[in-house]
Amino acid sequence: MSKNELVILDCWASPFCMRVKIALAEKGLDYEERAEDLFGGKSDLLLTSNPIYKKVPVFLHDGKPLCESSVIVSYIDETWPAPALLPSTPYERSQARFWADYIDKKNSMQLFDSTSAIWKASGDDAVESAKKEFVEVLKVLEGALGEKEYFAGDAFGYVDILAIPITSWFLASEKFGNFKVEAECPKLSAWIKRCMEKETVAKVIPDPEKIYEFVVNLRKMFGIA
Amino acid sequence: MEEVKLLGWWVSPFSRRVELALKLKGVGYEYIEQDLAHKSQLLLEYNPVHKKVPVLVHNGKTMAESLVILEYIDETWPNNPILPRNPYDKAMARFWAQFIEEKEEERGKLVEEASQCFITLEGELKGNKFFGGEEIGMVDIAANFIGYWLGVVQEVSGMELVTRDKFPVLCKWMDEFVEHSVVKETLPPRDELHAEFEARLGAPSWKY
């Protein structure tokens, strides 16, 4: 095995995998992308590398596996320090980690779960209720962004990387929920556009229309309406 | 002068984490007890998003989320490090901390809800021997976990949720409950229950 062999066990639609790929792109690193068939059968490597969750992404650095996308992105930032993804002072870093935790908070209404709840819901009431919760989460994030270009200020960084991939799933929610994120949260919408203009982001994030088709198939699989 | 304050709650394992980290590093701090049943203006101002403890205030800057605070503490006071220095080991430590957090949050919610519950129940006793009055009733029976099991859980976990000074009325009820002639017959032997809980709870995550 050559030094600095980087592998990601991946699923093209997974926003969590997209996070890792954006981080690697930001650092100008080459890596091998190995697609996992999450429905057909997970690879042995995935199952042995991530026995606790059996999920993607798994990132392997010279064969050593790491799991949990936020942990992986932090690791990438610490191992290849330039350009920095996390801010420079401990306090600013604590703010970035706080928002990362908010976006991913388990046992709570997190960004990906709340957007998915909309297309998972069946019945108008359930859809409306899911939409309300999702918009609440968006508004909190919009508040955190404030007047800044990116979450930490002028530079694209950690929180942006964790949040932007999830936005590729918003179109599906908009279609099933019959609403527009731009109408509800214009500043956040502007931030999405700003991030998508970055080359490292644009080349990783798939077309939201493709995610929408993927969701249509997921709904069929789950037997939703 | 370094000014460190911690908003915490005596029950919360999450605020205990922060205290432990500060103590390990010999960092002096002012502890401000919070009453989660009546949240203070300070708490609401310092943690508007989650309105929870712990909140760390360092030289006027506020931080929330215990694991986030631990990272800040480790970076700010690097002596006696709590995270490994090697990036891979550090990543593994973060992975496990998040895993535990996910499990503990499930339990943590129960702890907070339980304490609120105890406060309410004490009110419901209204100076009576039992919830049912002079004799045990439906509510006493429904509360049997509190009456007996909880004490064992506390012994096993090392966590004191119901103490005589915090909940004197409830403790008196617990005494009456376990002494009741019929109730006595329904209680599993304490040592066996203790062993069962020990096996199931896996004490270490509660012990500090």
From TrEMBL, chain A:
<feature type="domain" description="GST N-terminal">
    <location>
        <begin position="4"/>
        <end position="84"/>
    </location>
</feature>
<dbReference type="GO" id="GO:0005737">
    <property type="term" value="C:cytoplasm"/>
</dbReference>
<dbReference type="InterPro" id="IPR045073">
    <property type="entry name" value="Omega/Tau-like"/>
</dbReference>
<dbReference type="Pfam" id="PF00043">
    <property type="entry name" value="GST_C"/>
</dbReference>
<keyword id="KW-0808">Transferase</keyword>
<dbReference type="InterPro" id="IPR040079">
    <property type="entry name" value="Glutathione_S-Trfase"/>
</dbReference>
<dbReference type="InterPro" id="IPR036249">
    <property type="entry name" value="Thioredoxin-like_sf"/>
</dbReference>
<dbReference type="InterPro" id="IPR004045">
    <property type="entry name" value="Glutathione_S-Trfase_N"/>
</dbReference>
<dbReference type="InterPro" id="IPR010987">
    <property type="entry name" value="Glutathione-S-Trfase_C-like"/>
</dbReference>
<protein>
    <recommendedName>
        <fullName>glutathione transferase</fullName>
        <ecNumber>2.5.1.18</ecNumber>
    </recommendedName>
</protein>
<dbReference type="GO" id="GO:0006749">
    <property type="term" value="P:glutathione metabolic process"/>
</dbReference>
<dbReference type="Pfam" id="PF02798">
    <property type="entry name" value="GST_N"/>
</dbReference>
<dbReference type="InterPro" id="IPR045074">
    <property type="entry name" value="GST_C_Tau"/>
</dbReference>
<dbReference type="InterPro" id="IPR004046">
    <property type="entry name" value="GST_C"/>
</dbReference>
<feature type="domain" description="GST C-terminal">
    <location>
        <begin position="89"/>
        <end position="214"/>
    </location>
</feature>
<dbReference type="GO" id="GO:0004364">
    <property type="term" value="F:glutathione transferase activity"/>
</dbReference>
<comment type="similarity">
    <text>Belongs to the GST superfamily.</text>
</comment>
<dbReference type="InterPro" id="IPR036282">
    <property type="entry name" value="Glutathione-S-Trfase_C_sf"/>
</dbReference>
From TrEMBL, chain B:
<keyword id="KW-0808">Transferase</keyword>
<dbReference type="InterPro" id="IPR036282">
    <property type="entry name" value="Glutathione-S-Trfase_C_sf"/>
</dbReference>
<dbReference type="GO" id="GO:0005737">
    <property type="term" value="C:cytoplasm"/>
</dbReference>
<dbReference type="InterPro" id="IPR004045">
    <property type="entry name" value="Glutathione_S-Trfase_N"/>
</dbReference>
<dbReference type="InterPro" id="IPR045073">
    <property type="entry name" value="Omega/Tau-like"/>
</dbReference>
<feature type="domain" description="GST C-terminal">
    <location>
        <begin position="59"/>
        <end position="197"/>
    </location>
</feature>
<protein>
    <recommendedName>
        <fullName>glutathione transferase</fullName>
        <ecNumber>2.5.1.18</ecNumber>
    </recommendedName>
</protein>
<dbReference type="InterPro" id="IPR036249">
    <property type="entry name" value="Thioredoxin-like_sf"/>
</dbReference>
<dbReference type="GO" id="GO:0006749">
    <property type="term" value="P:glutathione metabolic process"/>
</dbReference>
<dbReference type="InterPro" id="IPR010987">
    <property type="entry name" value="Glutathione-S-Trfase_C-like"/>
</dbReference>
<dbReference type="InterPro" id="IPR004046">
    <property type="entry name" value="GST_C"/>
</dbReference>
<dbReference type="InterPro" id="IPR040079">
    <property type="entry name" value="Glutathione_S-Trfase"/>
</dbReference>
<dbReference type="GO" id="GO:0004364">
    <property type="term" value="F:glutathione transferase activity"/>
</dbReference>
<feature type="domain" description="GST N-terminal">
    <location>
        <begin position="2"/>
        <end position="81"/>
    </location>
</feature>
<comment type="similarity">
    <text>Belongs to the GST superfamily.</text>
</comment>
<dbReference type="InterPro" id="IPR045074">
    <property type="entry name" value="GST_C_Tau"/>
</dbReference>
<dbReference type="Pfam" id="PF00043">
    <property type="entry name" value="GST_C"/>
</dbReference>
<dbReference type="Pfam" id="PF02798">
    <property type="entry name" value="GST_N"/>
</dbReference>
